[in-house]
Amino acid sequence: MTISGNLGRMFALVAGFAVAAMVGAQTPPATAPAKPAAAKAAKPAKKPAQPEYKMVLEPRAMDLLKALSTKLAAAKSMAFTAVVGYEYPSKLGPPIVYTTRYDVTMQRPDKLRILIPGDGPASEFYYDGKAMVAYDPAANLAAVADAPATIDDALKAAYNNAAIYFPFMDLLVTDPYAALTDGAVLAFYVGPSGVVGGVKTDMLVWANNDVFMQIWIGADDKLPRRVRAIFRADPAQLRHEMELSNWQLNGVPPPDTFVSAKAQGAGRMEFAAPKGPPPGVKPIVKTTTAAQPKPAATPPKAN
After folding, report:
1. Biggest CA-to-CA distance, the chain
2. How many CB atoms lie within 10 A of CB 87?
3. What average pLDDT does this structure show over 234-242?
4. DSSP string, 23-84
5. 3-class DSSP state of 184
6. Is 244 buried (19+), middle (13-18) or exposed (0-12) by CB count in 10 A?
7. What confidence category does residue 139 fall into, taking pLDDT thresholds of 50, 70 and 90?
8. Model-level pTM?
9. Band of the pLDDT at 43, cuts 50, 70, 90?
10. Cβ(122)–Cβ(116) under 8 Å?
11. Mean of the pLDDT values across residues 217-224?
12. What is the CATH number of domain 76-269?
């Protein structure tokens, strides 16, 4: 290429820059440069504001809880099986499910037996209106304490004195409706189901400031069949599920149902909440990673 050709190309570039500068100088400063049509089209549309969700206590859902509570409160005795699955965080991240079975027999106003096989050690609980007994069959040890005169008060005493808690406590008290609806901020009907408990059920959602629950209630017998709960304080949102079956209402339990000869002859241990681990022992899973909520914010209320 000749020298004159290179100079010509250089002059053309300089002239082009000069023209561009002149055009820019003549453009009013308040006017922004025009954008290509494609850029305008790519600008995301502004999303409409989402309406704020209103927390309501839907009458149909509350009526279902009322029917369930009336059925249980009217029963002079009841027996049922509760199979509870609860998630616990693992080192790998995904939770592990542990399962506990409760075989429950209750007679109002002052008799209760709960047999508890599970994925961990089995245990048993007895209350006969005078004493309550927590029994460990494997170790052949029993904790015995004087008890109040009613099931409601005995459950409160077991919780307050020994941290003994059962996930179905609200179903055993004198007024289940007051216990089940305490602090309710949300309740609504979901729909029917035919796949839970082998019967037709109605599904509802219920929540207070501590827990969000879905409940399946028998459409005909008004008995609870399944409960699924997530606790608000749990950052991992671990799930707790309870299946309820083998319902028997107003039966006549044998007189020896609510005492245990083995527990009476067992060694004694303190009727108190379990103590913490020895000094220096660290948990396998840090609770700060996915803290487990307490099973109940408050013990059941008695009338």
Report:
1. 120
2. 20
3. 92
4. HHHHS-TTSPPPPPHHHHHHSPPPPPPPPPPPP-B-HHHHHHHHHHHHHHHH-SEEEEEEEE
5. coil
6. buried
7. very high
8. 0.74
9. low
10. yes
11. 98
12. 2.50.20.10
